[in-house]
Specification:
Blueprint: H1 12-17, E1 36-42, H2 55-58, H3 61-69, H4 84-91, E2 96-101, E3 106-111, H5 118-121, E4 126-133, H6 158-162, H7 166-170, E5 179-184, H8 197-201, E6 205-210, H9 224-233, E7 235-236, E8 240-241, E9 248-253, H10 263-278, E10 282-285, H11 310-320, E11 324-328, E12 350-355, E13 379-382, E14 386-389, E15 395-398, H12 401-418, H13 424-433, H14 452-463, E16 471-474, E17 482-486, E18 491-499, E19 504-513, E20 517-520, E21 529-537, E22 540-548
Parallel strand pairs: 5-9, 5-10, 6-9, 10-11, 11-12, 12-13
Antiparallel strand pairs: 1-3, 1-4, 2-3, 7-8, 14-15, 16-17, 17-20, 18-19, 18-21, 21-22
Helix pairs in contact: 9-12, 10-11, 13-14
Length: 551
């Protein structure tokens, strides 16, 4: 069974953004071998202007809502598509169009043989042409993805216990309502892997697309994305527990595992723009770039300054759209490069380092700081002996910042759910300030290992108005949703809701509850009338009379 692309029919805004490219974007036959890729930088967006497009034509309602929450203009110049006539004129010179970036105002073209780019450079609307892939291929490198398998034993739920994540999960904050875009090299077996059965059964995979092959199929290539997704959403009792098991996911293939070229940055940016337009709240990217098959294309460490690398600049633009971008810092410290890789150097990107089960930094986790002396990585999480799924039935222990990245992405989703008013940059700050090295961050751990309960408290202190005594409940009357706010953290908590006939219609033991805010929809779908709520906490017992109204 192939993963269904459940919301593609609703992506009219994305198709509108590409309407100018339709005549030149037909996929070539699978047997055609395009070896040379060229990135063309345009001077402007031609006749396209904001007056020609509504926000609804360029972005999904979810994307518009996310930006409005963060006070971001909708739309802006970067939302305008690359001008189609420019694409057509370059294509007419013998170049096959592959993808475009509206943010960077570039387009990626390909040829089977080396091409003369002088005619393209001579076009009045072309600023630059850059070769980003040629026929120099070293071959794929599994190590770059963090597949360093180990037989050592670490408790299956150590990713969660290390960051004190269970208080959030036990309180019902498990990523529900949050949309995470996973950018990776492929998701082979995700359509039938055991640990993702619950995710598939609730239709939690909302969309898929392969920007390398220009196809909706992402389960035909590589298992690295499967492993990353299992850290986020895997569920097998006593074997694996994902950090955001109730979140929804978009699976996007942007990495060609058979090569290492700058063209993969173009694929990544196309995927990030797709995630933005789809309304993703988080981009989780266990990918990064520094050196390439053709060494003449390599970045220098001085390029890792947060403003130079092509992919880093795009990642920061994604963050400027209200998306939380989480990126692996890299597995380079025991290799010649040693340092962090792009886009983790972005000043608005959360860079993930990797520690072992005893909270010690791994030998491979890339070192910071960035070239402009930012603290990098930002924070660290388990990336050694972590349980991941690697095929249809098997789970193993593996190493890599590829896996500490989804630990942090998933727990960040739980924070977003718990405090929906919080902006992505505030989530990053909460993680930094809750971490165990916040007072003395360094170039290996960053701010250290975050504590999710303390991060939650930090965010709630910003956004929750604490009642003077006891607790408050609203709205009353309600149409189904209820929100409780506590002066003191409730600790252990139990709730009964009784109808006017004295019948218990809802009962729940929350156990040890995290934070000072509780939202439930227990009365949704119930009959109009009077209901009574009894709430037992460590701070006392509270009773409420609620009026339920129906539309």
């Amino acid at each position: 069974m192939r993963i269904k692309t459940l919301i593609r029919s609703n992506l009219a805004w994305f198709l509108t953004g590409l309407l100018c490219l339709a005549s030149v974007s037909r996929s070539p036959a699978q047997t055609e071998n395009y070896t040379y890729f060229y990135r063309v930088y345009f001077t402007d967006k031609g006749a396209n202007s904001l007056s020609h497009f509504s926000a609804e034509q360029l972005l999904s309602p979810r994307a518009i809502e996310r930006r409005q929450k963060s006070g971001i203009a909708v739309p802006d110049y970067r939302d305008l598509p690359v001008f189609g006539e420019y694409i057509e004129q370059v294509s007419a010179l013998g170049f096959r169009f592959h993808c475009a970036s509206k943010w960077m105002n570039t387009a990626l073209f390909k040829t089977m043989n080396p091409a003369n780019t002088a005619p393209v450079k001579a076009l009045p609307f072309v600023a630059e042409v850059k070769l980003v892939r040629n026929n120099i291929v070293k071959g794929g490198d599994e190590d770059k993805f963090g597949y360093m398998l180990t037989e050592e034993i670490t408790p299956y739920d150590r990713p969660i216990t290390m960051v004190n994540g269970y208080p959030l999960h036990r309180s019902g904050f498990d990523g529900s309502g949050i949309l995470i875009a996973v950018l990776d090299a492929g998701f082979m077996y995700a359509d039938r892997a055991l640990s993702l059965a619950a995710l598939r059964s609730r239709n939690g995979i909302k969309d898929t697309y392969d920007f390398v092959k220009k196809s909706p199929v992402v389960c035909a290539y590589h298992t690295h994305g499967l492993s990353v997704l299992s850290v986020l959403a895997g569920q097998i009792s006593g074997v694996i527990t994902g950090t955001a098991p109730a979140a929804d996911y978009i699976l996007l293939r942007s990495e060609d595992a058979s090569t290492e070229t700058p063209a993969e940055e173009d694929f990544w940016i196309a995927a990030a723009e797709y995630a933005d337009s789809s309304g993703a709240d988080i981009i989780s990217s266990s990918l990064g770039y520094s050196t390439f098959d053709d060494v003449s294309m390599n970045y220098k460490f001085s390029d890792l300054d947060g403003n130079t690398a092509f992919i880093t600049r795009a990642a920061d633009i994604a963050a400027s759209r209200g998306i939380l971008v989480v990126s692996s810092a890299g597995n380079e410290r025991n290799k010649p490069w040693q340092r962090i890789i792009a886009p983790s150097d972005g000043d608005s990107v959360l860079a993930a380092g990797a520690v072992d089960g005893n909270n010690f930094i791994s030998v491979f986790s890339s070192a910071g700081p960035s070239a402009d002396r930012q603290v990098k990585p930002d924070v660290s999480a388990l990336g050694v002996n972590i349980t991941v799924q690697v095929n249809e039935t098997h789970l193993v222990k593996a190493n890599g910042t590829s896996f500490s990245c989804p630990v942090l992405s998933g727990m960040a989703a739980c924070l977003m759910e718990a405090v929906p008013q919080a902006a992505s940059h505030e989530i990053i700050r909460a993680l930094q300030l809750s971490a165990d090295r916040k007072n003395s961050p360094d170039s290996l751990y960053g701010y250290g290992i975050p504590d999710m309960l303390n991060a939650l408290r930090y965010l709630q202190d910003i956004y929750i108005e604490i009642p003077e005594v006891g607790s408050e409940l609203g709205p009353n009357p309600t149409r189904g949703e209820l929100q409780f706010t506590f002066r003191n953290e409730p600790g252990r908590m139990k709730m009964d809701i009784v109808n006017s006939s004295g019948k218990i219609i809802y009962r729940r033991d929350f156990g040890e509850y995290a934070g000072r805010n509780l939202r439930i929809n227990a009365l949704a779908g119930m009959e109009q009338g009077i209901y009574f709520i009894r709430l037992e906490t460590d701070s006392g017992t509270f009773k409420y009379r609620i009026v339920k109204l129906n539309d």
